[in-house]
Design brief:
By secondary structure, this protein is largely without helices or strands. The chain has no helices and 3 strands. Strands 1-2-3 form a 3-stranded antiparallel sheet, with no helix packed on it. The two termini are about 20 Å apart. About 5% of the residues are buried.
């Protein structure tokens, strides 16, 4: 956010941490993470929402758990940055 002046939007998703969005190529100083860091412990991509439901005014980052599906219990439960 500090280099580019904004967080990634939903269409860019977390890939904006690996590859410069076309409108920010001059400001972007990444990559900011390794590709492997965009995967949860089960090897599924984290879900990123620029306008958070759990974090209004900020973003949500969600792992859908072991099954990679929304909802669930125990190992399949969603994990959110709330």
């Amino acid at each position: 956010q500090y280099h580019c002046g904004r967080l990634p939007d939903d269409s860019e998703g977390l890939q904006a941490l690996l590859i410069a969005p076309s409108d920010l190529e001059e400001k972007w100083k990444g990559p900011y993470v390794k590709r492997s860091e965009l995967l949860d412990p089960w090897g599924n991509e984290y879900q990123y929402f620029s306008e958070g439901v759990y974090n209004p005014g900020s973003f949500d980052l969600i792992s859908y758990g072991a099954d990679g599906q929304e909802g669930g219990e125990e190992d399949n439960a969603d994990i959110v940055n709330d």
